Amino acid sequence: MLLDFLIFLYHFIFMIIPVILCVAFLTLTERKVLAALQRRRGPNVVGIYGFLQPFADGLKLILKEVVLPIWSNKLLFFFAPFVTLSLSLSLWVIVPFSEEVLFIDLEYSLLYILAFSSLTVYGIIFSGWASNSRYAFLGALRSTAQMVSYEVSISLIYVCLILVVGSLNLADFVYTQEACWFIVPFAPLFFIYVISAIAETNRPPFDLPEAEGELVAGYNVEYSAVGFALFFIAEYQI
Length: 238
Known about the structure:
Blueprint: H1 2-37, H2 53-63, H3 74-90, H4 109-130, H5 134-165, H6 170-176, H7 187-200, H8 212-215, H9 225-237
Helix pairs in contact: 2-9, 3-4, 3-9, 4-5, 5-7
């Protein structure tokens, strides 16, 4: 039993490391694109063309002091980032990367994705409520409302594909696309899905729940150091 658990943990870690690296460089890409749109340079000092900027930001967040608000619920405040990150990382264990690389083959893997992606909302609610700050609480409510609303559109898109494939297993979705990718016959659904996915992760131009001009920074306004980093990583993976 212990050996099986260690093997499981070994494969899980080596699957998550590339995901974390992709998140790091997605942040760099986003900052570069936004800088180009606003006619400014963006990250260009750390490394060649700012290539090492994500690692510098990660090191800075790890070394910073963890600040706990005095009137916050300490247990939930500390627990919320780990809940959000663990739920977002658990979604990757059923993704079929190829015919040979499939971590866990579930018969109802699509329902698993819908269930766990919906549970990530609780981490945001916990963070806003446990901070005992009106700004964090209002930001959590706005983020929750946006995530829940766009999950409806994503679920409806899944229903259309389920009717075509006739299965809830992601592996069957891959096998069905051997002759033709779904992006060809379902191009309108693909664009709707991309828009809904961007809104689900609260990235620009759908970052209104944070609303720096109104709410300071949203649900994570009271978080710093590692807690903020965990929320940021989870936000990119939901």
